[in-house]
Amino acid sequence: MVIEDETALGEVIKAAFSDENFEVDLAEDGETGYFMGISGIYDAVVLDGMLPEMDGCEVLRRWRQEQIQTPVLMLTARSELEDKLTGLGLGADDYLTKPFDMEELIARIRVITRRQGTVWLEHLTYKDLSLNLNSGVIENTETKQQVRLGKKEFQLLEYFMRNSRQILNREQIAEKLWGYDCEAEYNNVEVYISFTRRKLKYIESGVTIKAVRGIGYRLEYRND
Ligand code: CA
């Protein structure tokens, strides 16, 4: 997520990250960004220091107080050295001074996401299942059977594999796949879960996405 009140700059940052295959939500004031970040669905946040409604330091302070540990990179103006230091004290993972180089920003975001444990490996694995993060192909590591996932199936399975011990609810999944913009997409979650299950079955993986009644879904292995 990018929280930046200068609309043009926000759009430029969003476009640059989109080119690198990140899904980006944009918030234009601190309060909106604060509430969007409370869900904990973001892999990282670019947070401007000077914002209307709630300033960047306050957003960060509240998140950390509420145990939202999403990595945060703060943007500060050259004259806001004090903000910078306050930000690091509050638990920002990094900062950049405006104006900054876009490639530098992207490189730093990759670093702070790695630091949190979201490793940018080529493969994610869980039990007999391997997901290739470049090609979107899943493989049964025992039988070597493979199939390619569609874009949303890929995002869905990646989300489950990165959170393999957690139950994920429908809202979290919808927000991860479509962002906050499309509430109408909530019902599509089940459709994509069913597509993804079919592909897991096709490669005869023992892993499937199990519904946990009234709560959400989680990964399950046949011997669990
Ligand atoms: Ca600003």
Structural write-up:
The chain is α/β, with parallel strands linked by helices. It is built from eight helices and eleven strands. The protein has a five-stranded parallel beta sheet, with helices on both faces. Strands 6-7-8-9 form a four-stranded antiparallel beta sheet, with helices on one face. The two termini are 35 Å apart. The chain binds calcium ion. Calcium ion is lined by residues 5-6, 48, 50-51.
The N- to C-terminal Cα distance equals: 35 Å
| Structural class designation | alpha/beta
How many strands appear in the DSSP assignment? 11
User: Treating each run of at least 4 consecutive H or I residues as one helix, how many helices?
Assistant: 8
**Largest β sheet strand count, sense and barrel closure:** 5 strands, parallel
Average pLDDT taken over every residue = 87
Tell me the radius of gyration: 19 Å
Bound molecules: calcium ion
Q: Report the uncertain regions.
A: none
Outline of this structure?
This protein is α/β, with parallel strands linked by helices and 224 residues long. It has helices spanning 7-19, 30-37, 56-65, 81-90, 102-115, 151-162, 170-178, 188-202; strands at residues 2-3, 26-27, 45-48, 72-76, 94-97, 123-126, 129-132, 137-140, 146-148, 207-212, 216-221. It has eight helices and eleven strands.
Supply database-style keywords.
single chain; 224 residues; alpha/beta; 8 helices; 20% strand; elongated; binds calcium ion
